Every structure is written in C-alpha cells, then in structure tokens.
Amino acid sequence: LAQALAHRAPTLASSLPLNAEVNTRVKGTLALFSAGDADDLASRIVQLLSNADERSALKKNADLYAREYS
What we know:
Blueprint: H1 2-6, E1 11-14, H2 17-25, E2 30-33, H3 38-49, H4 52-69
Parallel strand pairs: 1-2
C-alpha cells in the first residue's frame, strides 16, 4: 500500500481499519471495497476502470498523502 501511494497510483484497498484510517488523513486517498466481499471488489474495479475522473482524484490524493506522510 505504501509503495502504491508513493508512486501516486490510484489504489483500491479493502475496508480494513488500517486502510480506512489512511482516508481519514487525506480524504479520498484510497478507493475502498468491503473486506471479504468479492462482489463489491468486482463492482469497485469496474467502477474505477470506467471512471477516469475518480482515478485522477485518487492519484492526486495519493500524491498529497505521500508528500505529507512519507
């Protein structure tokens, strides 16, 4: 996760507490799916692949997070 953010990659992660905490530091850093829910994971993948604006926002927020917390 840290490497993905450091490379400013749009990142999809499970909603585990540690991952969710990242979004409390810089809102929108990660796209989250419900942990253990394969259908939600698949849905979020399709959503991200079809939404360039969301991917761009994730990249921007990953950059902000990496600058602040790396």
